[in-house]
Amino acid sequence: MRAQDSATLGSAIADRPATARTTARATTGATADATDEALSTASATATPAAAPPKAAPGTGGSAGTAQAALGVLCFSFSFPATAWALTGFGPWSATGLRGLLAGVLAALCLAAARVPLPERRHWPGLLVVSAGCVLGFPLLTTLALRTSSTAHSAVVIGVLPLATAAVAALRAGRSGARPSRLFWGAALAGAVAVLGFTLLQSHGLPGLADLYLFAALLICAAGYAEGGRISRELPGWQVIGWAVVAALPVTALTTALALPAEPVELGGKALAGLAYTAVVSQFGGFVVWYRGMAAIGVPRASQLQLAQPLLTLIWSVLLLGEVLPAAAPVTAVVVLLCIALTQRARA
User: Fold this and answer.
1) Of the candidates 306, 332, 265, 209, which has an alpha carbon nearest to the alpha carbon of residue 88?
2) In angstroms, rounded to a whole number, what is the distance separating the alpha carbons of residues 194 and 310?
3) 293-314 pLDDT, tens per residue?
4) Which long-range contacts (CB under 8 A, 24 or more apart) does 50-57 make?
5) What is the CA radius of gyration of the chain?
6) Which of 103, 202, 218, 323 is the most buried (most CB within 10 A)?
């Protein structure tokens, strides 16, 4: 009896590891099956959600380039139109009326479309656009055009693309995409070509007008870069619309004080120039300009403006009777090559 009990006990002890091993295998296998099933489920769930990434600014293609180019074309008439406006209005009156009329037009468009007020986070940038593109640049360039020719004043446009790209890169910081060396090289070459051309025509003599233009360059570059940034979140026409509306108190006060103090001689050219600067230069041109900047990126769009001084010179010949310099065609070829390089450079 005792021998039989001992044998049974020994057999049970001998079988225990095997049973434990079998149980462990069964448990491990079940766990592995559950894990595989969970991974398969997660993979099946994640696969449809893996949508293609959003296109980054700078990859908007031909549509964005066309919009930015249309903006440049609109702006290229601004200096001749301002010169026309100055034949009937003083510089402060022309600037005030330009902003006032654009602000009223923008307010009507925003009200008709029932556009809500921008979020609080957008207002600092909108105020930069307002200060740079609605108030500062128009006033300073208008003051410069009193004593400077259209050709000489175009120097500010020659440096503006490079300044805009630089401000945009600094604004983006390390978090943003930085333009390549080829981009900066082409941009700098285009700026040097335009600067050399315009300064050659003015004999390289700096004056008060140059100080006005230099100040206008800095604040306009900030306004362009900030407007292009906000246009990724708001439609371009709303960006400039709210900017000119925000400037209405200043432009209305400027108009009220300047009109009685400055002489006014109404004429066809003066009214046409004022209408163009208010409707197109201050509002309509910015609509397509900011759309283009949002689509292809601020640096690439800004370099299209290298063609603006040359276009302005053509309009100054046709509209103001100025003589086209002989170096214009050569400069045009150099600038167009620089534009082509900046558009193909990797951002």
Assistant:
1) 265
2) 8
3) 888 887 778 778 888 888 888 8
4) 56/177, 56/297, 57/177, 57/232, 57/294, 57/295, 57/296, 57/297, 57/298
5) 32
6) 103
For residue 303, what pLDDT is reported? Answer: 77
Q: Give the other-Cβ count within 10 Å of 220's Cβ.
A: 24
Sketch the domain layout of the chain as residue ranges. 63-344
Mean pLDDT of the chain: 79
Taking CA atoms, 160 is separated from 99, 106, 299, 319, in Å, by 21, 25, 11, 24
Higher pLDDT, 227 or 3: 227
Answer whether 254's CB lies under 8 Å from 102's CB. Answer: no
Alpha helices in 202-327 (DSSP H): 208-230, 236-246, 248-261, 268-276, 285-296, 298-303, 308-320
Whether 95 shows a pLDDT value over 90: the answer reads: yes
**C-alpha angle with apex 138: 248 to 126, nearest 5 degrees?**
50
